[in-house]
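Long-time lurker, first post. I've been practising inverse folding by hand and with some scripts of my own, and I keep getting stuck on stretches where the structure tokens seem ambiguous. Below is the full token string for one chain I'm working on. Before anyone asks, I'm not after the true native sequence, just a reasonable design that respects the backbone. If someone could post their per-position residues I'd love to compare against what I wrote down in my notebook.
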């Protein structure tokens, strides 16, 4: 090969290799987005009190409408505003939007986790979107004593560059009656498949949304009616306005592995998965029930349903952790069977915050046919 030919081959290799490396380097990494905690804020010249006046005043973000930049300790109407991470957050007034452009991998699944707190609106909700997908997240229920909760939402990337947007659709008399937003993070999801040992996807609940390492309150999964885009892959959250909570072993007592789900709002919400079954064939559903070791001391109980079978599993909690195993045997009555878990009742911790039983290590297998009686 001549020197010229070698240079041509080398140049072609370089040109072929560059786009692949650029695409790999440009995709977002798991964790906080650039300036996801809003610690890098506007210049004083771009603020009118707390109101941000410039469209690009907050680095890495683009805003529209009535957006405020709030510092921890901000005093408003005899109420001191606390910030969960760092010292600064933003507040979205009526019809306000804040968004950031992300480089992602096309066709990949992602989960967004962010911290939010309600203010003076009675029916607070927030639109989260990555075009063409969007979700309306109810945030009026407060699950922590601080008033801040971490919510999750998932999407499948249709393009390699997408806009992540948070929009407040509220129409309050006071334009400042909008939600506070802080600590926005992303996590790539790898939806698990069913295996020979378990007919359920993500039965161990290990694949799920990003949980902030310094947040001891876990991450909420709001109502999700499609398992394909759930931040808890394989599972749907059936409710009108309430959530379930993903908790991790770094801050909670988890029966198995690194994660579990806490059912925090009684019968108002259910953890659901649909699975293909054969009518008339027997099946066995196994799972763990326990407490998160978070001070939830009460007579807890989980109700499990599958086909026409039901099982109530009581668990006497001291609030220090622990779990028990349970099994539900049933015969399928259709080609699709819903496996359902919900808390039997409401529970609160001594500080008044909502809590409930844990479910974890869920598996579904075919049972043995009973021998016919002669």
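-- Answer (accepted) --
I ran through it position by position. Result:
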């Amino acid at each position: 090969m001549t020197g010229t030919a070698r240079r041509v081959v080398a140049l072609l290799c370089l040109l072929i290799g560059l786009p692949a490396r650029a695409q790999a380097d440009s995709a977002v990494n798991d964790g906080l987005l650039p300036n996801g905690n809003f610690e890098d804020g506007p210049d004083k010249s771009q603020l009118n009190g707390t109101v941000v006046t410039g469209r690009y005043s907050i680095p890495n973000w683009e805003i529209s409408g009535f957006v405020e930049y709030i510092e921890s300790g901000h005093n408003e109407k005899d109420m001191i505003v606390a910030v969960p991470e760092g010292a600064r957050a933003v507040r979205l007034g009526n019809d306000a939007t804040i968004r950031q452009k992300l480089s992602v991998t096309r066709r990949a699944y992602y989960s967004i986790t962010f911290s939010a707190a309600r203010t003076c609106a009675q029916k607070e909700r927030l639109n989260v979107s990555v075009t063409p997908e969007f979700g309306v997240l109810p945030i009026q229920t407060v699950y922590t004593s601080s008033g801040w909760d971490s919510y999750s939402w998932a999407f499948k990337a249709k393009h390699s560059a997408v806009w992540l947007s948070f929009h407040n659709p509220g129409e309050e008399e006071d334009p400042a009656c909008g939600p506070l937003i802080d600590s926005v993070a992303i996590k790539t999801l790898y939806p698990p498949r069913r295996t020979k040992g378990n007919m359920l996807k993500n039965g161990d609940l290990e694949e799920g949304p990003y949980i902030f390492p310094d947040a001891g309150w876990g991450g909420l999964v709001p109502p999700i009616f499609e398992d394909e885009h759930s931040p808890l892959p394989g599972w749907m959250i059936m409710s009108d306005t309430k959530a379930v909570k993903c908790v991790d072993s770094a801050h909670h007592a988890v029966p198995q592995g690194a994660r579990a789900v806490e059912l925090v709002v009684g019968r108002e919400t259910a953890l659901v998965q649909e699975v293909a079954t054969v009518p008339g064939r027997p099946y066995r559903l196994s799972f763990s029930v326990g407490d998160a070791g978070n001070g939830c001391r009460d007579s807890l109980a989980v109700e499990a349903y599958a086909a026409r079978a039901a099982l109530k599993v009581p668990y006497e909690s001291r609030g220090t952790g622990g779990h028990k195993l349970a099994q539900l045997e049933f015969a399928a009555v259709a080609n699709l069977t819903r496996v359902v878990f919900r808390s039997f009742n409401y529970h609160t911790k001594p500080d008044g915050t909502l809590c409930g039983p844990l479910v974890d290590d869920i598996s579904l297998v075919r049972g043995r046919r009973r021998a016919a009686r002669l």
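A couple of notes from the structure itself: Confidence is low (pLDDT under 50) at residues 3-25. The helical segments are 3-26. Happy to go over any region you disagree with.
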